Amino acid sequence: MELLERVREIGADAASLGDDGVNAARQALLREIAREERVTPAREARVRRWIGGSALVGGIAAAALVVGVVVVPTAAPTASAAQLVMEKSADATIEASEEVVPRGGYTRIDTAFSWATTYDEQMPDGAGFNNAMRAEAEALLIVEDRMSTYVPADPDDEWVRERVPYRVVEALGPRASEARTAWETGMNPGAGLAGVTRYPGGVAEGGRDGDTVTYYLDSRELYADLPSDAESVVAWFEERYGAEGQPDGMGHFFVETLGDLNSFNLAPAEARAGMLRAFALLDGVEVVAVDGDRTTLAYTRDFEAGPSRVEFVLDTARGYIPESTHWGMGEYGAAVGIEGAPDWQSRTVSVVSVVDSAP
Q1: Phi-psi bin for 136: left (phi > 0), alpha (psi -120 to 50), beta?
Q2: Residue 151, phi then psi, degrees to nearest 5
Q3: pLDDT tens-digit profile of 326-343?
Q4: Suppose 276 and one of 52, 90, 197, 309 were both cysteines; which one would form an S-S bond, judging by CB atoms 3.0 to 4.6 Å apart?
Q5: How does DSSP classify residue 124?
C-alpha cells in the first residue's frame, strides 16, 4: 500500500480529503524530498542514499504534508521517494492501457536518440570517430537517430515504422566542418534505414550470417512469463542477465533499458508496470526534481571501466518514460575539451500520442 494511501486512512476521522488534495500533497512531498537531497552535504547524502536505496520519507513526509492537509504520525511506515514515484507510475501504466484507441487509429511513439561522437583527424581512415582521447578531440558531433512507430488499435493489424536517415544536428570544435563531412560521406551507419516499413501483427524479422529470427516489435514474447510482483521481477532479470556474466542483472538491464526508450515505451503495459516496480528496489535510485506529472530520477552504477549515470524523466500519469540521459563510463565519462560540448554521452526523447492514421 502506498504511503499516501496510508495517509488517507490515518486521516479518516478528519475532514474529507479528495484526490486533488492527495495529489497536491504527493507533489509537495516529492518536491521537498528532491530539494532535501540536493542541499544535503555529500557525506550525509551518501549515508542516507544507501538506506533502502534513496532518501527515506519519514520526517520529511511529515514536514511536507503538514501544509494544511494532514500530519503523518511518527509511527507511519517509511517509503523511498523513488518507490513512491514508481508505484504511482506502475498503477498509471495499467490504467492508461485500458484507454481505448479509436477503431482505425494508432498509438504513435516518436523516438529521437542522440549521441556525442568525437573526431580526431590524425587517426587512420575509418577510425577517426570515438578513437581520440576526449580531452584532446578536434571536433565533436551530436548525431540523431529518429523514428516513429505506429501501433494499431487492434495489435493483430499492420504496424508501421517510419525512419529518417541519421543526421548531424550539431558540430563543434576547430575541425567541426571536416568532421561533419567525414561522417556524412563515409561513416553514416543509418543511411540505409530511412523509409517506411510495415509489420503485419507487429512481427519483424532480423538476424545475421544467414540466420533469420522473428520477433515482436513490443517484445511481448520476451515478457510473456514476466512475474507481476517486484521481487520476482528482479529475480527474473537476475536469472537472465546473471547467465551472461553480469553480477548485477537488474542494474545492468536498468541502464540498458533506459537507453532504448522506444523498446520500453512499446513494451506491454503489464511488463512496463512490473519493471517500474522492480526499478524502485534498486539501491541508488533517487528523485532529482518534480514538475507536475514529470519526475526526474537518477541512478548510478559501477562498472569495471568506471561509474555510469543515467537520469530519466518519468510520466507518472501515464507510465511512460519521455526522456533519458546517459553519462558514459571510463574514457567516455571524461570531459570533452571543446567549448559548448555536452557532458553526457547520449540522450533519448520519446513522445507517445494517439493519431488517426499512419503513413
Answers
A1: alpha
A2: -100, 120
A3: 987 766 667 788 888 888
A4: 90
A5: P
* Rounded distance between C-alpha atoms, residue 227 and residue 42, angstroms: 37
Beta strand 139-152 pairing with 167-172? antiparallel
Per-residue cell: 164: 529518417
Q: How far apart are CA 322 and CA 83, in angstroms?
A: 19
Q: What predicted TM-score, i.e. pTM, was given to this entire model?
A: 0.72
| Pairing verdict, β 195-200 and 167-172 | unpaired
Q: What residue type is 336 in one-letter code?
A: V
**Which amino acid type is present at position 94?**
I
Q: Which residue type occupies 236?
A: W
- pLDDT tens digit string along 44-90? 333 333 223 333 233 323 223 233 333 333 333 345 788 888 888 88
- What SS3 class is residue 281? coil
CA dihedral 56, 62, 65, 66 (to 10 degrees): -160
Using CA atoms, how far residue 337 sits from 122, 138, 198, 322, 327, in Å, is 17, 9, 44, 30, 16
